[in-house]
Amino acid sequence: MSLTLDENNATYQIRAYQPGSIQINDRLLHNSIIIAPEKLIENWQPQKITDLSASDLAIILEWRPNILLIGTGEHLEFPALSTYGDFINQGIGVEIMDTRAACRTYNALTAEKRNVVAALIIH
Q: Between helices 54-63 and 81-89, what is the axis angle to 10°?
């Protein structure tokens, strides 16, 4: 069997996640984040999915990703459509999943050099 080297060139990569912490490159963070291949916002305000509002996601619209991943924490919970409807209206794909799945998906998409942003609730 031949193996190929995963050449993910994203500046910001997710190395590990468990409820309450996430490792970005060599740094361990304990608050929610927004992560893109070349951008990272630490200490993002919403700490649980019920705190999430459209204004919390507004900065991401300026980045114009093709895909937005919303990691809802340890369990999958769907936020109100009004929270992320602007992305859909602008043709940006939105995927909502628990944060563990969002981390895996982010890594897979950045390895494919896709224009993705993940908004991740850590707790």
A: 20
- Whole-number Cα distances in Å, 123 to 55, 63, 90, 103: 20, 25, 29, 14
How big, in percent rounded to 5, are the helix, strand and coil portions of the chain?
30, 30, 45
Whether pLDDT at 3 is above 50: no
Q: Cβ(75)–Cβ(38) under 8 Å?
A: no
Question: Between the CA of residue 110 and those of 11, 26, 34, 66, what are the distances in Å?
Answer: 10, 18, 14, 12
DSSP secondary structure code for residue 48 in this structure: S
At residue 123, the pLDDT reads 86
Q: What is the pLDDT of residues 21-44, one digit of tens each?
A: 999 999 999 999 999 999 999 999
Distances (CA, A) of 114 to 30, 99, 108: 26, 19, 9
